[in-house]
Amino acid sequence: MHRSCRLAAVTLAALAYTALAGCAPKGRGSDSGGPGDELQRLVESVVAADDAIHGAALAVVSPSLGIDWRGAAGLADPSAGTPMTPDRPVRLASNTKTYVAAAVLRLVEERRLELDAPIAALLPADVADLLAGDGYDPDAITVRHLLTHTSGLFDHSGTGDYTEAILADPQRRWTARDQVALAVELGAPHAAPGEVYTYCDTGYVLLGLIIEGVTGRGLAASVRELVGLDRLGLGSTWWESLEPPPAGVADRAHQLYGEIDTYGFDPSFDLYGGGGLVATVGDLAGFFGALFRGGVWAQPATAEIMLTTVDGVRARADAPDGALPPGAYRMGVWVLETAGRTSYHHTGFFGTMVAHVPSLDLTVAATVNQNRGKPALTRLLDETVAIVDRSR
Q1: Which of 78, 127, 149, 225 could form a disulfide with 123 if both were Cys (CB 3.0 to 4.6 A apart)?
Q2: pLDDT digits (tens, 9 = 90+) for 90-101
Q3: Annotated catalytic, 241?
Q4: Is residue 46 part of a domain?
Q5: Which residue among the candidates 94, 222, 236, 391 is catalytic per the annotation?
Q6: 18 is a domain residue
C-alpha cells in the first residue's frame, strides 16, 4: 500500500474508532489533553511509520495513577479495510507461556506438583520414551528446567523446517505429540539439564501435557480455572479451538507473517502451551496486572518464585543474534530494563507484547499484528512508560 494511502487509512480508521466508541477512555489529566491524547497519537504514529504494520492497539493501566486507557489505529483486516479497535482479540502466541507458568505455579501452591520433580513420571509414557530415545534423560529434567528454558531440549519451532511445514499446509491439525516428535527428529539435546539457557516452545508443550496429567482435565479448562480467568473478569480471553469464543466477542484481528495473512491458519501449529490463547490487549493487560498485583496467587511469595533468577546457566554456543542472556528469563516472564525502570515482560510471535512496571504500578499491553513488529513494540512500551511517567 502506498504511504499516502496508508496515512489516509490510519486517519480514517482512527475516525471510525472514535465514531464507534465515542471517545477513547483517558487517564488522569485527560481534560488537559493527556496522557490519553498523547497515547493515541503514539499508536497512530507507530502505524503510520511502518508499511509492514497495518494496525495496532494499546492498553495502559495504572490503578495507583488512575489510568485505564485503551486505543487503536489502522486496520484489523487490511484486505477488507476493517478498522482496528482495542476490542479486537489477537492470537497471543508466546504470551501464553506466562499463563501456563502461572498455572504450574498454582499447582505448586496446591501441593499437587513440585518444581524439582523429574518430568519422567509426569509425562505420558510414550512422550517420555520418545525423549529418552533421542538421548534425553527425563529423570534428570525437572519442571523448573522446563519453566526456565534450561532443560537442554531442542526446540521444534526453532528452525525453518517447522515454518516451511506450516506454510506448506496451513490447515494441518498438529498435535502436541507431533511437535515433540518433530523436536526429536530435527535436533539433538543442546546440553545436560541446567547447563544452558535456550528458549524452547517444546518445553512449554511438555508443561501443557504435565498440567493435563496432574489435573486430569484438558489444558484450556485447567489453565482457565487455575489462574482464575473467569474470576478476574477476563471475558475476552479463550483458548482457540479448545474452547468456544466468548459470546459477543469481536472477530480476531488479522496477524501477518511478513506479507502473509495467517488469519485462516489452523491454530494447532502453536496451541499446546507455547501458545494458544486469544485475547484483547485489555484482557492481556488485565491478566498481567493481576499476576503482579496479587490477584492470581494464593500465596504472595509465589510471585517471588516466578521471578527467581536462574544461576549458573550459560548461553548455548550457537545462540542466535539478539537472544537474551541467561538470567533474563525467569518462569514465563522476562525481567528487563524499560526506559530505565525494571519491567516484567513477555512477547508473542505475531506482534504482541505485555509488560508490568512495578515502580509505576503500570501495565502495558500492545499488538502490532505483524511478526516483524519488534521495534514498534519496543517503541510503544518505552514511549508509553515515558508518557505515564511525565503525567504523574
Answers
A1: 127
A2: 999 999 999 999
A3: no
A4: no
A5: 94
A6: no
